[in-house]
Amino acid sequence: MSATRHVLILGGTTEARRLADTLAADAALRVTTSLAGRVAAPRLPAGQVRIGGFGGPEGLACWLREQQVDALIDATHPFAGTISFNAARAAAAVHVPLLAVRRPGWVAGPGDDWHPVGSLAEAADALPALGERVFLTTGRMGLAAFAHLEDRWFLVRSVDAPEPPMPPHTEVLLDRGPFTVEGERALLRRHAIDVLVTKDSGAAATSAKLTAAREAAIPVVVVRRPPVPEGVPTAAGPAEAVAWVREVLDGR
User: Fold this and answer.
1) Which element (helix H / strand E) includes 61?
2) How far apart are CA 90 and CA 213, in angstroms?
């Protein structure tokens, strides 16, 4: 890579920050990380940072062209489905190589009582048969799916305060991982939780709740992650993504 090359990372995850930190240390690369702006005080990565949307796939394609991006990496949250499909369409339109970084999902083990569902709406439908005091760890953006459950009590944990609509009987816990098994055990006991709802984010920083639920024999409703857009190659973590960048840019 003789000339400076521009890499755009669609970020907001631990993997995205680690990837940016590694790539930004290379003087031959210009690294920009784009954040959606949904978290009030995000942890900023190395390199340049832009905050806010692009205006759909057409807007992203225009940005890629104008900023002369040589490689695009989608390292967003596994459930940030819209931006992933926008990225696939934009990259195809302007012929920019695209890689999706997706950490491995969680896998149920002996003693786990998991109930996989396809959406937050399906998770809400499953709750009446599973418990009355719900630990909801799906983030602040999808609480409307549970707002009609007036006979359940919810403990909602999120980084930033959620906004209505939300269930009428809700206590909000503002916190950011990583979390410990000991801390999650205490939280489940303190709030008498009898069912956990989570997305299959696959993050080690938030997996302690699954261990605590298993120990307490608490059922877990697990929302399956959406698929990566068809035809987009994937990497399990930053190391694989760095290798992909080197290979792609050496060939351009």
Assistant:
1) helix 56-66
2) 41
Measured CA to CA, the distance from residue 138 to residue 125 in angstroms comes to 15
Residue 73 token pair: 């990496």
Work out the number of other CB atoms within 10 angstroms of the CB of residue 142: 19
* pTM as predicted: 0.86
Tokens of 211: 């261990």
Q: Which amino acid is at 53?
A: G
Q: Find all residues with CB under 8 Å of 45, minimum gap 6, and list them.
A: 9, 11, 16, 17, 19, 20, 21, 24, 33
Q: What is the mean pLDDT of the chain?
A: 94
- The 10 Å Cβ neighbour count of residue 44 is 13
DSSP output for 108-131: --TT--EEEESSHHHHHHHGGGT-
Q: How far apart are CA 183 and CA 33, in angstroms?
A: 32
Q: What is the pLDDT of residues 113-133, one digit of tens each?
A: 999 999 999 999 999 999 999
Give the residue ranges of the chain where pLDDT is below 50. Answer: 1-2
